[in-house]
Each structure stands twice: as structure tokens, then as C-alpha cells.
Amino acid sequence: MVNKTLYCFGLISLVLLISPMTECNAQVKRLKENWGARLGLNAVSIRSYEVYSDDEILPNSSYTNKNGYLITAFARFNINRVFLQPELAWNEYNRTCSFSLPIENTDNYYQPSDLDINSKSINTNFLVGYNIIHDYPFLFGIYIGSAFIGTYRTDYSVEMGESISKNDLSLNYTGILGFSINISNIYFDLRYEMCLPNDNLSLRDLNFPERYQNVRIKKTESMLSFSCGVMF
């Protein structure tokens, strides 16, 4: 389940920023080009999850979705109700994967281990949208698009303070669905990023102790995010 903090953030932001509705000037000229910036929260959602040691599925396998953060700058090019929106974003993603390692020469398992994963990325997004409501200063638009994700740092940590940092650049991509609301210059955005490919993890590739070397995590991740900001 996506962390409830994400929804609380959206509700509080909406209550605090709804007041500009009474101050909007309906005669403000519609712009063919806009630019803006937004801040928000994201939450990684793991849709499928299995942990293996060699070919054995490990018991007590679970995951925890956690909140991360995002900062985005964007431009918008308007063609009547249609808009094109390129974006440049910084994201921090957090999640925890849990599993129980087998005890050698027995049929028993250790207590579950938690693997915390924190990654930071620069994303380039491109959206194509349509404003269902196009009565300035009120806009309500839906959009689809794609994101290219350049993850430049990932930190992995387990119990007893054991941690590994991976600074190699890795590239990935995903599809985007979402909607946006404009109230004068105030901008709200809610989006879902679908099914990251190539997000499996082999601990053999990391410099963890030997007991973790045969662990492989197969998972499918998606992201939900909410943000608010300004658009001029």
C-alpha cells in the first residue's frame, strides 16, 4: 500500500493553496508558452516480489514502500487545448526489501534481514496532454508520456551497519499517466509511472558479505507521485 503520507501531503497542500481562486483575474491573457517548477513526494510501489537464493525461493519475503522526494522544472507549449510538456526532474526513491537467509546445513532460516535501498536520479520526461477544462485561470488536463531515468547513486544497507554505495550511472525508462490542475499560477500534479523494466537485483554484484552473495531479488516497481508548484 502506498504510504499514507503522500495523500496527506496532497490534501494539506490543496487546502493551503486553494485560496488564490478568489483572486484570479479571468481577463489574463492565455499564454502559448509557460514555464514552471514543482516540489513533491513520490512513493515506490512494488507490484511483484520474489527473493531467491540460488534457485530456492526464500521465506518471509516482503517489502515496504517508502516516501521519497522530487524537484522538477518544466516548460509547456500550448496548441489550443493540447499541450506538450518537457521536464527535467531530480528524484530520490526509497524502499525496503526483506527476506530470510538459510542456515547452512539445516532446514532452518535466520530472522528476516532488511535491505534498505535509496536511489537518486535525474529524469527527463516528455508529456503530451489535453485540457478538458480550458477556462483560464482554471485548467484541468490529462496527459501521457515517458520518462528516461538516469540513476547516478544507489545506497544499499542491511543490519549491523553494513552498507554499500553504487555510483555507476544506470539508465532506465517508464511510461507516465497523470493529470494536472491549474488555479491561476498555482499548479498541482498527480501521476503514476508504470512498471520499471530491468529493476531486478543480484547481491552478487555488490560487495556484501558472502552469505548474501547468492541472493537475487525479482521485482516490478512503479511510482506514484504528487507535487505542487507554480506555472507562469
Secondary-structure blueprint:
Layout: H1 4-17, E1 33-53, E2 56-57, E3 62-65, E4 67-79, E5 82-99, E6 113-135, E7 138-157, E8 163-166, E9 170-183, E10 186-196, E11 201-202, E12 215-231
Antiparallel strand pairs: 1-2, 1-4, 1-12, 3-5, 4-5, 5-6, 6-7, 7-8, 7-9, 9-10, 10-12, 11-12
Describe the structure.
The chain has 232 residues and is mainly β. It has one domain (4-22, 30-85, 96-164, 201-219). It has one helix at 4-17, and strands spanning 33-53, 56-57, 62-65, 67-79, 82-99, 113-135, 138-157, 163-166, 170-183, 186-196, 201-202, 215-231. Strand 1 and strand 2 form a beta hairpin. The relative contact order is 0.22. Residues 6-29 have low confidence and may be disordered.
Short description:
The chain is mostly beta strands and 232 residues long. The protein has one helix at 4-17, and strands spanning 33-53, 56-57, 62-65, 67-79, 82-99, 113-135, 138-157, 163-166, 170-183, 186-196, 201-202, 215-231. Strands 1-4-5-6-7-9-10-12 form an 8-stranded antiparallel beta barrel.
